[in-house]
């Protein structure tokens, strides 16, 4: 006779209860062979887990993305020359999501511990645990060897995806895999995710229609503490009018996470239609409406990363499903018509984004500059600065392939010696205007204007104007010459290594420039990273020449690479990235074998296929988008659900 424990795991027979602390060793039984480890009272692998045990997985997957709350915190930012934001910071979109992720992981561990004490603990047989373990190991090693342990532990400002968060992801992935055993458990993940997605889509719709809920008095009070309520009128976000950012802070992240959901909801609509009259019409309408709302938000977010991911979804679906698509032609045509209608409605939104993306890929001139660019109308006529470096009292510049050295004299700050790349002395000619400025008597440097200067504190400078952009260098006795950046900090300059995109730094809305500087950084982190979420610290923020050539504002800070693989490589090391890729490739290979030429009938099968296509789209979008606490809980929650579904389907069809 079987009994149920408090959280609904069914007990085994009294005969089995005799081995209360021993793992099952048999591999001949259909039940035992699916376990890597199981205790005597562990439920059968096809028995649904109690709804209460589903709560951490449910909240992690569906609800964390909705959290928005004001958080004041302090960080030792004064140590960095490239920021003057101060040590007192405020953010809304990441900190409390991080807290919720950690809480979910702790609760998951508590539930697992409960299973141990009730002898109902089990681990499904799976090869996923090896790359998960390797990844966690190198995340911890990277933190242990990090020079910035506090940032590595909790994550960078406004991101908070540090070591604790990354480890929590793996804990939750393990928990989800070993908690979802039945279609009822799958629905406990999918239905709340659908409900949350509906609410977020409405929020995004309000933002697109210029009626952002978070800009209302009620919305501001919901995301701020009571002590701030008398100041809510002063609270404004930096988003432009009608930008769809929902609750994920960046419009790129909206399309990023929607690549997970659109294939899922599309497949559930197809499943609903395939059931014919046995499925109520309102359910078909619900899935179609949810698909349409999410499609509107993806297109309206104006992020080409989402379009890239959805293109991958379509290609993979065609290859994988083959003739099955023909059997689904009616619901697919309905989804296509719905997409075309939404695309027509949002034409003014997606067309500039796709056009800009095409220009970026092809390296052609864009009419509209991004917000990182300068507003100079003459920027396209400027010469190319190969490098600027400071060494001792020398300022070394290469302009259009021509080298020139300015030797300064701190004891006599108005004196200067100028030599070209061959060591030949160059003369200067005074200009009438501006006063006390000079031009170099050499056609190669005709666009240079130089002259001494002094500030109110008595510090002497040497200013070199190149194509109307001033480069100011401090000349201080007893110190090497330093560049004075736009924040007033003195910074040494050197040649910054770069790989690729020399003639197309605007590729992918500036990703070409960022990636070209990130690739040389990868050599030092091929094994172990600098620490999770420390990319901003190690990026060459003193690459003012590179920003100048890319037509960026010189003081802009690059805090993420816009590529989740590069970010992980710098933060937690190359081996950790290979471990993650192994994890994802195992899932992809298993899913292909599971769904190839499969006849789809059940809710679980359609859900598994939808999750698989969404994961593929997400991983492709990850090449141009960043990992973030706003989207990764849903990714890992659905990935764990997809893995659990594959294990469930594997029982009926060995793969």
TrEMBL record:
List each copy of the O-antigen ligase-related domain by range: 505-579
Q: What is its main location?
A: membrane
Pfam families per UniProt: Wzy_C
Membrane-spanning segments: 51-72, 92-114, 126-144, 164-181, 251-269, 305-321, 328-347, 568-588, 600-624, 630-649
Asked whether the UniProt record includes Zinc among its keywords, one would answer: no
Q: Does the keyword Membrane apply?
A: yes
Composition bias type Polar residues, residue spans: 10-29
Q: Which domain of life is it from?
A: Bacteria
Q: How does it sit in the membrane?
A: Multi-pass membrane protein
Query: Which terms are listed as keywords in the entry?
Result: Membrane, Transmembrane, Transmembrane helix
> Localized where?
Membrane
Q: Name one GO cellular component term.
A: membrane
Q: Where is this region: Disordered?
A: 1-29
Q: What is this protein called?
A: O-antigen ligase-related domain-containing protein
Q: Which organism is it from?
A: Aminipila butyrica
């Amino acid at each position: 006779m079987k009994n149920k424990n408090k959280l609904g795991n069914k007990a085994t027979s009294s005969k089995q209860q005799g081995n209360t602390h021993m793992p099952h060793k048999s591999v001949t039984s259909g039940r035992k062979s699916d376990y890597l480890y199981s205790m005597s009272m562990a439920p059968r692998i096809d028995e649904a887990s109690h709804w209460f045990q589903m709560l951490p997985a449910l909240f992690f997957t569906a609800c964390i993305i909705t959290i928005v709350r004001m958080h004041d915190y302090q960080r030792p930012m004064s140590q960095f020359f490239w920021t003057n934001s101060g040590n007192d910071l405020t953010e809304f979109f990441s900190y409390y999501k991080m807290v919720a992720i950690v809480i979910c992981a702790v609760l998951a561990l508590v539930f697992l511990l409960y299973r141990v004490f009730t002898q109902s603990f089990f681990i499904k047989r799976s090869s996923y645990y090896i790359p998960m373990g390797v990844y966690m190991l190198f995340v911890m090693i990277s933190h242990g060897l990090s020079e910035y342990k506090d940032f590595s532990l909790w994550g960078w400002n406004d991101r908070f995806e540090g070591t604790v968060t990354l480890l929590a992801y793996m804990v939750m992935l393990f928990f989800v895999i070993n908690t979802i055993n039945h279609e009822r458990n799958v629905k406990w993940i999918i239905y709340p995710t659908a409900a949350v997605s509906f609410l977020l889509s409405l929020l995004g719709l309000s933002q697109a229609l210029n009626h952002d809920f978070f800009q209302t008095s009620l919305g501001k009070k919901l995301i701020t503490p009571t002590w701030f309520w008398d100041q809510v009128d002063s609270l404004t976000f930096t988003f432009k009018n009608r930008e769809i950012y929902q609750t994920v802070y960046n419009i790129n992240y909206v399309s990023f996470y929607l690549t997970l959901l659109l294939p899922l909801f599309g497949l559930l609509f197809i499943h609903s239609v395939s059931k014919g009259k046995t499925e109520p019409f309102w359910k078909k309408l619900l899935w179609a409406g949810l698909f349409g709302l999410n499609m509107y938000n993806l297109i309206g977010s104006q992020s080409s990363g989402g379009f890239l991911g959805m293109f991958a979804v379509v290609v993979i679906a065609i290859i994988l499903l083959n003739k099955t698509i023909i059997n689904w032609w009616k619901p697919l045509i309905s989804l296509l018509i719905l997409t075309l209608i939404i695309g027509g409605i949002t034409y003014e939104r997606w067309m500039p984004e796709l056009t800009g993306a095409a220009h970026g890929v092809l390296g052609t001139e864009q009419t509209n500059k991004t917000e990182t660019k300068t507003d100079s109308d003459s920027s396209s006529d400027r010469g190319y600065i190969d490098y600027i470096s400071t060494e001792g009292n020398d300022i070394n510049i290469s302009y259009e392939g021509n080298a020139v050295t300015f030797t300064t004299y701190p004891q006599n700050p108005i004196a200067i010696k100028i030599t070209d790349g061959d060591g030949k002395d160059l003369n200067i000619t005074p200009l009438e205007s501006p006063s006390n400025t000079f031009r170099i008597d050499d056609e190669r440097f005709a666009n240079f204007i130089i002259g001494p200067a002094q500030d109110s504190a008595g510090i002497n400078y040497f200013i070199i104007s190149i194509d109307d952009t001033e480069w100011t260098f401090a000349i201080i006795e007893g110190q090497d010459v330093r560049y004075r950046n736009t924040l007033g900090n003195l910074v040494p300059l050197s040649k910054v290594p770069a790989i690729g995109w020399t003639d197309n730094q605007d590729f992918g809305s500036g990703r070409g420039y960022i990636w070209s500087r990130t690739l040389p950084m990868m050599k030092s982190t091929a094994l172990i990273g600098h620490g999770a979420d420390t990319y901003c610290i190690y990026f060459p923020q003193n690459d003012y020449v590179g920003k100048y050539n890319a037509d960026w504002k010189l003081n802009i800070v690059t805090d993420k690479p816009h590529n989740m693989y590069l970010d992980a490589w710098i933060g937690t090391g190359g081996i950790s990235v290979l471990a993650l890729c192994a994890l994802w490739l195992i899932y992809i290979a298993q899913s292909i074998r599971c769904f190839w030429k499969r006849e789809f009938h059940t809710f679980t099968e359609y859900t598994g296929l939808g999750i698989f296509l969404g994961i593929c789209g997400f991983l492709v979008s990850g090449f141009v988008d960043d990992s973030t606490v706003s989207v990764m809980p849903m990714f890992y929650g659905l990935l764990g659900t997809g893995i659990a579904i594959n294990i469930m389907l594997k029982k009926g069809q060995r793969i």
